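We treat protein structure as text, and this decision shapes the records that our systems exchange. Because each token names a local backbone shape, the row as a whole describes the fold. An entry from our holdings is shown next, in its original layout:
>
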Amino acid sequence: MLITGDHDRRTQRGDMRLLTPLLAVGLAAYAVPLLAPLVTSGTFAFELASTPNTQLTSLIAAVVALLGFRRVTMYPGTRAFGYILPAFSTTFGIAAAVLLATRTSYSGAMLLVGYVASITVTFLLGYFEQRAAPRRMYYVPNGNTGIVGDTPQVDWVRLTEPVVPDDPGAAIVADLRTTHSPDWERMLAQAAISGIPVYHTKQLRESLTGRVQIEHLSENSFGSLIPALGYRGVKRTIDIVSTVLLLPILVPVLLVVALVVRLSSPGPILFRQRRMGYRGIPFDMLKFRTMVERTVEANDDALRQDAITRDGDDRITRPGRFLRRSRLDELPQIVNILRGEMSWIGPRPEAVPLSEWYERELPFYSYRHIVRPGITGWAQVNQGHVAGLDDVHVKLYYDFYYIKFFSAWLDLLIALRTVGIMLTGFGAK
């Protein structure tokens, strides 16, 4: 929730924050490519037929990349600079492919210069915008102030009296659901009238931490208990098409990994585990086996303990550690995707004994089953592997955030971050 004072002026500031980079990047993508012939041949001579085509293509690719980049990096926890290159590489790559497919006359050198120029300008704009971003926030000490401890990256200043801060870049945070004294309410109203943003702790906490908490379903925190029905159908289509297209590439990898698992230790190549799935329906999730086989007693506590992977777990084989760190052990789940039991991206499915335990201990835990579970998800790229109940509680908040902001943009962000995690082994056990 955001209270605004000088609405028109602040709306204009928001428009300028988008218009300025659009103009700068658009100019770089359209005008700088004209220097390509000078760089490559030493003269300004170039094919007139290819120049307008290349300039227009470069402009469209740069603008689409910038809009997509800014949309994705609105989410918390993103390292903005890490997504500039993938965003522009994708749009310029698609643009080049379209030009080739349609046999349109264009200059490769000019398109390359436009690509480099637009990326450079975006990096510079991001750098200066980051330096100018306010890092100080003032908070009202009444009500829920847990946001202060959850976000140490912010310079928090505690307001000791109901007086508007004498700071041109001030932003005030308050628990707007608690009852404040008349003096504090007047101060908040005056701050809003003066054009100083006043944020509700709950919404700002979500934005800064990437986690959503549900205290009571009666609050209807999500606006609806069913997330983005339209995108859910589109997402299922993307899952099927992308899986079919990737199969020819993945088959050789699957065969090699299968051979390694077979030679690593006695036991089956695939590990099947009953997991809680979409709409609370259990399913058999497939993975490459990364642990030695052993017999487990058939009681709830033993099954729950066996389902938890701990640091230095001695059940993991030597090749299994690499497979877990690189996430290659998850590849057989493409079968679960084709069956409709999973998606590429979504809350990670838990073993049935664990899920039943969490449901008994954590309020609203079952709500995470409203979307298909995924091979990777928002909790995995932010938190990594968890085992303790307290950590699972935090993981649940990440899952709720994903459900609340269920969209293609968030899926794209998770996919980009997953690539980096596969290289670093973050959260693997």
User: Anything to note?
Assistant: Residues 136-209 form one domain. Strands lie at 2-3, 136-139, 155-158, 172-174, 198-200, 270-276, 282-288, 343-345, 374-376.
